[in-house]
Amino acid sequence: MTPNKRRKEKANALRLWIQIVRLANGLQKDVDTRLRRQHGQSLARFDVLSQLDRVENNQLTVGELSASLLTPTNNITRLLDRMEKDGLLERRLSTSDRRSFNVHATAKGLELFSRMADDNRNWIDAAFASLPAKRLEELSDALSGLSSEP
């Protein structure tokens, strides 16, 4: 491979990365704004409830929850404190490790998440509506083949 061709490939990869980051950041900001406006909740709260909704007994340890979040959270303890105060989740002392807590979604939290998830699905569908289903599938397949490891 010639040096010029290699440079062009690197430039294309960098350009793609910039497009992905801009798209992801824009979608996150849009969804966060809509969640706040329509449900009084942030994207981080939605993410917490989403992770709890998808696991058995709607419960994870604080460490498992923190590791599974898609949105970066500076202070998971403070976020969980506020969500617990609002009745969206409960923290319970672990039966297997008395030094840790399990985070459990309440019925109120799961009900709220269900409404938010329906809206989020519609917003994301609308964001990608201009792409035919086949193209979405191709893009999804291509991106799933990438590794975030350098």
Structure overview:
The protein is mainly alpha-helical and 150 residues long. It has a single domain, classed as Arc Repressor Mutant, subunit A (Orthogonal Bundle). Helix content is 65%, strand content 9%. The protein has six helices and three strands, in the order H-H-E-H-H-E-E-H-H. A three-stranded antiparallel beta sheet has the order 1-3-2. Strand 2 and strand 3 form a beta hairpin. Helix 2 packs across helix 5. The chain is globular. The model has no long low-confidence stretch (mean pLDDT 91).
CATH level-two architecture: Orthogonal Bundle
User: Nearest-angstrom radius of gyration?
Assistant: 19 Å
Distance N to C terminus = 21 Å
Number of domains: 1
In total, the number of strands is 3
- Helix segment tally: 6
Let me know the largest β-sheet. 3 strands, antiparallel
User: What is the CATH topology?
Assistant: Arc Repressor Mutant, subunit A
Read across the widest sheet, the strand sequence of neighbours is 1-3-2
Report strand %: 5-15%
Q: For the residues shown, what is the average pLDDT?
A: 91
| Unreliable stretches | none
- How would you spell out the order of helices and strands? HHEHHEEHH
Shape: globular
**Share of helix among residues?**
55-70%
CATH class: Mainly Alpha
Structural class: mainly alpha
Q: Output the CATH homologous superfamily.
A: Winged helix-like DNA-binding domain superfamily/Winged helix DNA-binding domain
Could you give a quick summary of the protein structure above?
It is built from six helices and three strands; from the N terminus they run ααβααββαα. The protein has helices at 3-39, 43-53, 62-68, 76-85, 107-127, 133-144; strands spanning 59-61, 89-93, 101-105. Helix 1 crosses helix 5 and helix 2 packs across helix 5.
